[in-house]
Amino acid sequence: MRIGFVVGQFPQLSETFVIGQMTGLLRRGFSVEVVCNGIHYDFPDRRQEPLRTLLPRTRDWWGAAARLRPAVAGLPAQLRDKVSTALDISSAASLNRCDVIVAHFGHNGARAARLKKWKRLTPPIITIFHGYDVGVPLQERDLGRYGDLFRHGTLNLTVNGYFRDVLVKAGAPAEKVAVHHMGIDLKKIPYDWKSWRGAPLQLISVCRLAEKKGVEYALRALAELRADAPDLAWHYRIIGDGPLRQGLEALASELGIAEHISFLGSLPHGDVKEWLQRSHAFVLPSVTAANGDVEGIPVALMEAMAAGLTVVSSCHSGIPELIEDGKTGFLAAERDVNTLADRLRFIAEHPDECESIALAARRKVEAEFDMERLDDDFAAMLGRFAELRRVA
């Protein structure tokens, strides 16, 4: 069975979940083709599997005409859409050889749906919505941009229930929208809870330093914790880079907690894994960004919970579908620094109570976010749609 993936630039470090899903299908005997909006031939590990298999099967939407992309981007909106659609048609033959089309992110699904609308594309289209593609058009009151996708797409999958509700309210037929979580490879993440009784609490975040990750509020909460409980010993390490790093470093100094904060920048996966193993609690107080960008359900939280860290996050988007406050982790309202500080203080002062919470968190991830089980379900879903197409 041949599956055609429609994505943005490929491959991307920030979208390893896409590569992971492709890998799951390859392991189950599927053939995978990729149509994208620019190919990164210099991507790390490109000579190793699965990229060694995937890159030769990847083509740019516009083929040799991809060099025209900057010029097309500068055209007036209506003309740009017409030219883009005309150039997209060059990939229709490749996609029509597939049994099912899987588009990651709503805008890529909409792109495929336009070809379906013009009767240039025949396979069923399954689109997976992740976050930015829901939050930004919701804030802009422009979810109508997905009208063609709602009409011509076969199924819209959302990574959380909140997104499903948003799409149905925007006009997507309820029977064509379902929740399908992204997951993690639990075989690679052993559970290893460690007590911090009698030792400094080791806090960690692993994320891109962008607004929606909420690192600013973690810093402000820790400053409040420092003021309210100056005898508590803790250290906070932030792994990742991004546009807000310089400002966050300045904020740590301004708050008087810089000596307790380490900005480690982007690190290789092996180093990140080692730092996680040395840590006790994972902090990610996500917020809705000014442009509407939101999380789906962050994979980083799943990985931390699987590894035995106590997680602290926010009542944001689909995160409460993963974390139940006081049961599998701790939550505060978005930007609620006082509650966030209280949660951190509780963790620092109650390591024994946190052990049962960490174990419950591991079981939650095993039950609902196991990549192997989710990939089995996804493969079965694709098989059913492909069979319906053959019968039709």
What does the model show?
This protein is an alpha/beta fold and 392 residues long. It folds into 2 domains: 2-183 and 370-391, Rossmann fold; 186-368, Glycogen Phosphorylase B (Rossmann fold), CATH 3.40.50. It is built from 16 helices and 13 strands. It has helices spanning 16-27, 51-54, 69-73, 77-88, 92-96, 106-117, 132-139, 147-152, 161-169, 215-228, 245-254, 269-277, 299-307, 337-349, 351-368, 371-391; strands at 2-6, 31-36, 58-60, 100-104, 125-129, 155-158, 177-179, 201-206, 234-239, 261-265, 281-283, 310-314, 330-332. Helix 10 (215-228) packs across helix 14 (337-349) and helix 13 crosses helix 15 (351-368). The two termini are 16 Å apart.
CATH topological fold name of the largest domain? Rossmann fold
CATH class of the largest domain: Alpha Beta
Quaternary state reads: single chain
- Determine the mean pLDDT: 95
Beta strands, count: 13
Rg result: 22 Å
State the shape: globular
**Sheet of most strands:** 7 strands, parallel
Strand content: 15-25%
Query: How far from one another are the termini?
Result: 16 Å
Give the SSE string.
Answer: EHEHEHHHEHEHHEHEEHEHEHEHEEHHH
Low-confidence segments, given as residue ranges, are none
User: In the CATH hierarchy, what is the superfamily of the largest domain?
Assistant: Glycogen Phosphorylase B
Domains, number: 2
Protein name: Colanic acid biosynthesis glycosyltransferase WcaL
Family: Belongs to the glycosyltransferase group 1 family. Glycosyltransferase 4 subfamily.
Pfam family, one: Glycos_transf_1
Keywords: Glycosyltransferase, Transferase
